[in-house]
Amino acid sequence: MEPLRPASLSRSERSGACSAGAGRAARFRRRGAVLTGALAALALASPTVAAHADPEPSTKDLKAQATKLADQLEQLTEQYNGLKVKLQQSQRAAKVATENAKRQEKALQAVRDKVGNLAATSYMQGGSDPTASFVASQDPQAFLDQAATLHYFASQDGSKVQGLMQAMQAAQRARKAAEERARQVSDLRGRLEAQRKKVSQTYEKTRGKLVKKDPTQLGKLPVVGSGKGAQALRYAMTKIGRPYVWGASGPSTFDCSGLTMWAYKQVGISLPHYTGSQWNAGTHVSRGQLQPGDLVFFHADLHHMGMYVGDGKMLHAPHTGDVVKIAPLAGRPFAGAVRVA
């Protein structure tokens, strides 16, 4: 018997079947493309997580940080002023204690000499005197603690024995007091300097970032410090924007040495109205040692000067047609600096 053959399909049926198959293939390809794209995207994203850097602090944030640090430095400065008084008191007390220890040592030696003479006399008379053992002992207190010795001394000149004991005890107390005072002085100074250094470094770093973002902010920051230089600079900063006038020394117009003279006058220091004289008005310091308020000089003949502000900048009255302002030290022939106080 002949096997059954599949019925033949018409052309339209074959065409429909092909169209249906082509549609399914197209849909499969589209889905495959979408899946491939998704896998590719996942592969790019999954190996590492994108690192997000902390946003740079704004000018406002940096100024707030710098102002807060400056306030902390002011507090530490006042604590320093208070501790400086205590340090001076401790140093005086240590000196007094040391001198007292020396006096007691002399008194102790004098009593020892007397007891030694007493022992020598007894020995020459043929007696066996425990005093000699006391004088020769490396540990007099231990020797005195012996009952027989105490009984012996009780029968001797009480004032000499009492004087010896009091002198020994007083000398020991005085020495301990002097050593303790010295330790306290050292500890106080060390802790204070460590605190000041840490906050000062943080302030300088924050101020540097702020000035880098906006140089005009330097003049708006507090002047840190309690010395005469910092105080004078605070006064000078209030004159930013005032016009330069040759020969003027305030309170509304200034030339370069007139500004520094006026500022220091406000804190009780008289400076001559001449750059050459102000050059000799204090202690010369190097550029690396500059502190706010130090006088900075330029040119070989010292014909221009200003006041150091910090961060490599100064406050000065430049020239006719200009105003009191903050400017970089760089770009000018730096001659040197002077710390007035």
UniProtKB/TrEMBL annotation:
Family matches, as Pfam families: NLPC_P60
Source species of the chain: Actinomadura yumaensis
InterPro entries: NLP_P60_dom, Papain-like_cys_pep_sf, PG_Endopeptidase_C40
Keyword Coiled coil attached: yes
UniProt name for this protein: NlpC/P60 family protein
Family to which this protein belongs: Belongs to the peptidase C40 family.
Domain NlpC/P60: 226-341
Keywords: Coiled coil, Hydrolase, Protease, Thiol protease
Residue ranges the record marks as coiled coil: 59-114, 161-195
PROSITE patterns on file: NLPC_P60
Region called Disordered, residue ranges: 1-23
